[in-house]
Amino acid sequence: xxxxxxxxxxxxxxxxxxxxxxxxxxxxxxxxxxxxxxxxxxxxxxxxxxxxxxxxxxxxxxxxxxxxxxxxxxxxxxxxxxxxxxxxxxxxxxxxxxxxxxxxxxxxxxxxxxxxxxxxxxxxxxxxxxxxxxxxxxxxxxxxxxxxxxxxxxxxxxxxxxxxxxxxxxxxxxxxxxxxxxxxxxxxxxxxxxxxxxxxxxxxxxxxxxxxxxxxxxxxxxxxxxxxxxxxxxxxxxxxxxxxxxxxxxxxxxxxxxxxxxxxxxxxxxxxxxxxxxxxxxxxxxxxxxxxxxxxxxxxxxxxxxxxxxxxxxxxxxxxxxxxxxxxxxxxxxxxxxxxxxxxxxxxxxxxxxxxxxxxxxxxxxxxxxxxxxxxx
Length: 377
Known about the structure:
By secondary structure, this protein is an alpha/beta fold. It is built from 15 helices and 13 strands.
């Protein structure tokens, strides 16, 4: 069986975890947490990067920092993971879903102003598959209406829009280091803070409402409870695992890009014949080979293709069920405008196996079986 995903592993993870254990500090904010945070800050030019226990928690922190309150409205795509919505629902916000671009599966920025009301507090663009949303337009709209922008860049580490790293363009950015992502710490994430006035508040929020971070920097002689907060700090063992991969970030990216490019070139003929649709990458975007998907003609064809590939020993999956059609989505949100593409495109999309270290023979076999399906269907 060709797995859909295998968590990345470079070979130094256990060495660094052992080093963390031997340091006597495994609860977080040790040497490896600092290495990872500084790497993100320096590489992407963000004012502050704080590792978190998940991207879900990074989004929750962003919702807290944005002071989302009951009755506020937050605009986001329906085609996204539930965490994009949960973070704001927990604060009592009403979700306003808008349609997507069928080419990229990203939020359609042309529909944002129609969705804005006097209750709107924030826009949450989700960078699907590591392909940046049209951030220049989104930021202009946000500035015009005095809104915050919280980037869900869970899939966007090492991806860029007009030369700027995804997650560093809005007021806050949220990364994922889940085992399914390009770089992993098992479960984990990071919040990127762009505006200096939010940094101390973010540190306090992440450290259970205390000013512990200032204490460890030697800025105060003792720390105490100063505001509301929670425990968003990941274990040093997780950070040690992640550091082994950030050290090899370009190696991992290049390896994934090799598979992505192979799929893209090998499936061109099927797209030309109208059998399937390949991903579209806008000219201003540098993607990170987070995933490779195809689009079938309809849901029935996708179902048959998944079954066919499974019989051939290939594990492929579809992705999100649109949030606005879910039980909770109907309770906590509303869809603004017409659902022209969200549901239709979600039913066509099929993700192919893609992971660090994928064998040439495996990716060749995947494309051969896709050709076989469309020859015989």
